[in-house]
Amino acid sequence: MNSYNDRLKKTVRMVFVLLTGASLLTVVSCTGGGEPPKTSGSTDLNGLWRVKNTTQQSVATVNIRNSATVADNGGTINMVYCVERNNETLSRTGNRLAPFMDGSIDVNNGDSMRSQGASLGTVEFEKMSLAPNFAMGSFAMESNEVANVTTNDVCTSTTSAVLVGVPGYESVSATVPYQGSMLKIEMSRLLGFFAGSFSFGGETLTTAVELESPAFKPVYKTDRIMLHNGTLTITSRSNIHITGRFSGETPKGGNISADFDFQLP
Question: Closest Cα partner for 230 from 190, 257, 192?
């Protein structure tokens, strides 16, 4: 769960960039259509969950939406968070699950939970589907330097910042199995995502595509790389889906391209 704090810090930095360069940017409305899926009448906690958290920072309201699977074993709960796919075991006493961050989780029913803590404030849990599996779209990546991957084992998370009612920054991330470990894909853009093509890398600062995996280290001497001199194309975007393609240069001069269709939490 430390990834939540990391995301907050990064979002605040990006909003600062937006403020200092606001005169150079044009705001475009970017989303619409579709209602996030929710279950009802569940008799246990098993399923795929949406994890929502909103915090007020100095210059913006930051919204984080993660996804997690829950396996309900009665007295214990196994929860796997999307961002790092780490498995955490919580103990159940009555309608309370612990530990969670600096507090606990209160179970409202089989479809809804809630946590209140000092570090993150209120965290809301909403069940999206009954199956405790990450099946939130598709991802296919090709490269002339690292291994290719095609998978439907996808989980996603989003971070957005709203500045005085205006979208200031948005990040869409996905994690997929890759070469015996995980691959994290993070696409970010000042003013948010909408249908269109966006250049990134070089002198373009408004859009970024980053990839992270332990499998990268033998090739790039680091787990995390940022693509350069590339294009991110969003073919469709709604409140619940984002579809498109990106292609760009690696730090070694090779190429990585990918097609994605992500369900958003």
Answer: 257
Residue 1 and residue 147 in contact, taking contact as beta carbons nearer than 8 Å: no
Reported as a single tens digit per residue, the pLDDT across 169-194 is 899 999 999 999 999 999 999 888 99
Per-residue tokens: 103: 């507090």
DSSP state of 215: G
pLDDT in tens, 116-169: 876 777 899 999 999 999 999 999 999 999 999 999 999 999 999 887 666 678
Q: In what order do the strands lie in the sheet with 255-263?
A: 149-151, 137-143, 255-263, 241-249, 228-237, 196-200
pTM here is: 0.87
Q: State residue 86 phi and psi, 5-degree precision.
A: -85, 140
Residue 81, C-beta contacts closer than 8 angstroms, at least 6 positions apart: 1, 3, 51, 66, 67, 68, 88
Q: Is the peptide bond before 167 cis (omega within 30 degrees of 0)?
A: no
DSSP run (H or E) holding 9: helix 2-20
| Percentages of the chain per state (helix, strand, coil), in multiples of 5 | 10, 55, 35
**What does the alpha-carbon distance between residue 168 and residue 189 come to, in Å, rounded to a whole number?**
9
Identity of the amino acid at 205: L
The Cα–Cα gap between 235 and 245 comes to 8
Residue whose tokens read 């159940």:
92
